[in-house]
Amino acid sequence: GLADGFSVTMDVRNTQPVTGMAESFQQTLGQAGVKLEIIPGDGKQTLTKYRARNHDIYIGQWGQDYFDPNSNAQT
Predict the structure, then answer these.
(1) Of 8, 20, 60, 63, which is least packed with CB atoms within 10 Å of its CB?
(2) Is-above-0.70 flag for pTM?
(3) Is the model's pLDDT at 71 over the cut of 90?
């Protein structure tokens, strides 16, 4: 490990449950000496950075790319 820890950024969409997950990660990583900076943004901003691979860590959501009545009924 690194004696002084290190810093890292995490891009997240500014919606729940993603922001809550990021805050939980921030707290847990902080206990290990890792400083996590959360960078919130809307879907377009975060997805653009993700596609350009211009991020340290990214939390996003996945949805099916096809119509599935069963999956839609479960939501």
Answers:
(1) 63
(2) yes
(3) no
